[in-house]
Amino acid sequence: MNSPYPSPIPHLQSPARGLRGLRVCFIAGTLGQGGAERQLFYVASALKAEGAQVLILTLVRGGVWESRLEAIGIPVEFVGASASRLGRLAAICRAARRFHPGVVQSQHFFMNAYGAITARLCGSRSVGAVRNDGFSDKRDCGRGFGRLCLGLPQRLAVNSQAGLRNLLSLGLRRERLFHLPNVIDMAQFGARESSSGEGGVILGTGRLVPQKRFDRFLRIIAILEHSCIVSFRGLIVGEGALRPELEQATRDFGLCPGRVEFTGSVTDMRAIYNKAQILLLTSDHEGTPNVVMEAMASGLPVVATAVGDVPDLVRQGVSGFVVAPSDEHGAAEHLRELVSNPALARSMGARGCAFIESHHALGTLPGRLAALYAEKSE
Q: In what order do the strands lie in the sheet with 76-78?
């Protein structure tokens, strides 16, 4: 039976210079079921495979990735007992000093200030994270704290080219920025079996929060219902504070019962991707969305809003369609075309899978990480 988690990364390619013996302390806000946390597993596993020593500090206990990291021999320590920022910073600093890191790296933007201060106190290099478009990362943390999270780290690992451009427009120096794109475990999200996939299942997946705009997802499905004669249904996978509001909207649009289903959180996403025919992404802002990459790796065509690096991932008319966030009728029309033409959907999905395999494979990680840590910082 397929595991819902990726396997520990074996020795991926020739040894990456500078990683063996390096001590890297990661600081994560959570180890829950999210894209940033999955990428942390990939990075930590790759570092361990290359001979680095890794410690994970987290503010929240019991996330789904905690046990998986510990299972491959990467220690995880809880440092979130205090409700105050100063108390958390003190706990982080104590744990990091015991580890003697060469690099302190945050995995979430809102942990950047903690990581940078800890690195200075430990005499280490600091690497921060920007996982959305740069603008939204800063805004979501508030003006003052957002500035600290941008300004304090010596380097910022940015997972999208769009984020890089936005940070440059904010006046950050190019030498402080490093493009560290997301990667995908093709063994976990590889090509679909020919018999898998239900006709007309349009998948939306992610946290049910304002950024992801599942209200837009529902409106697009409602538009499609009035123009499509082929059977289809929407499937929303994820949990969050907006679920009751979205379920009510589903009833208001007349999409319940039967037209749209909410599953809540799902551990085994491979089974979900195998069930679906199309991924619909409706976010207002993203960096490099893991869900788009996972869906493409699973052989799904994608209809998505033109946010972050989505236009670089989804080639228009080749592996899917990209629309302006406000173009809900355009998104519905592209969905109608794909639902009505399964052969087109399959061919687009196959091309997307080939693109992810050639551009975002796990084997690229050691070299990229060695370059990140080797670059000079001030």
A: 76-78, 53-58, 23-28, 103-106, 125-130, 155-158, 177-179
Residue 349, CB-side half-sphere exposure with 13 Å CA sphere: 27
Q: What is the DSSP string of 22-86?
A: -EEEEEES--SSSHHHHHHHHHHHHHHHTT-EEEEEESSS--HHHHHHHHTT--EEE----SSHH
The two structure tokens encoding residue 12: 């991926």
Residue 218 to residues 27, 221, 332: CA-CA distances in angstroms? 36, 5, 11
Q: What is the C-alpha to C-alpha distance for residues 331 and 324, in angstroms, rounded to an integer?
A: 9
Are residues 299 and 352 in contact, defined by beta-carbon separation less than 8 angstroms? yes
The answer to whether the beta carbons of residues 68 and 74 sit under 8 Å apart is: no
Distance CA 137, CA 149 (A): 9
To the nearest whole percent, how much of the chain has pLDDT over 70? Answer: 92
* CATH entry, 201-359, from 1.20.58.90, 3.40.50.2300, 3.40.50.2000, 3.30.70.860: 3.40.50.2000
* CB atoms near residue 43 (< 10 Å): 24
CA 265 – CA 282 distance, rounded (Å) = 18
320-327 long-range Cβ contacts below 8 angstroms, 24+ apart: 320/279, 320/296, 320/348, 320/352, 325/213, 325/216, 325/282, 325/284
CATH of span 23-183+361-374: 3.40.50.2000
Task: Give residue limits of the domains in the chain.
Answer: 23-183+361-374, 201-359
Q: What is the pTM of this model?
A: 0.82
CB neighbour list of residue 375: distance below 8 Å, 6 or more residues apart:
155, 175, 178
CA 78 to centroid of chain Cα atoms: 22
Mind listing the pLDDT tens digit for each residue in 291-336? 999 999 999 999 999 999 999 999 999 999 999 999 999 999 999 9
